[in-house]
Amino acid sequence: xxxxxxxxxxxxxxxxxxxxxxxxxxxxxxxxxxxxxxxxxxxxxxxxxxxxxxxxxxxxxxxxxxxxxxxxxxxxxxxxxxxxxxxxxxxxxxxxxxxxxxxxxxxxxxxxxxxxxxxxxxxxxxxxxxxxxxxxxxxxxxxxxxxxxxxxxxxxxxxxxxxxxxxxxxxxxxxxx
Length: 177
What we know:
Layout: E1 2-5, H1 9-13, E2 26-31, H2 36-51, E3 55-60, H3 78-86, H4 103-114, H5 120-129, E4 133-137, H6 138-143, E5 155-159, H7 161-169, E6 173-176
Parallel strand pairs: 2-3, 2-6, 3-4, 4-5
Antiparallel strand pairs: 1-6
Helix pairs in contact: 2-5
């Protein structure tokens, strides 16, 4: 995970008066991993930031799209249909280490349940309930032969990198997960 923080031009030029909230209390998160542990971290940080009053936008790209994908077959070409066999939805993604053909995913789900830690779908729903915005990368959708209809209904927009960069420019922090 990488963290970039930049002062926004607004806060650099016009400091907030005492008692006023910061002008750009925003967090932009680029989720490009489809690993269970990294998606878990992304939703945990997003919900924590949103609960703390930050305006949070999560931009899902490439393998990260699995976190906002519906469980269905996709793809138009042979390669697209083959890729669909390996793309999972949020319930099917495994940890980055010790996956062992799905055994690791099962083990972590059991351990999370035993420790009363929310599941990935529960964390994603918490993010929705807290007002976290979901955006999908237009280029990744095209390359991976996914359609807007293949994503969960809570995805608010499909955008290009220019829109994500503008959000990041306006944010206090930008995270890459």
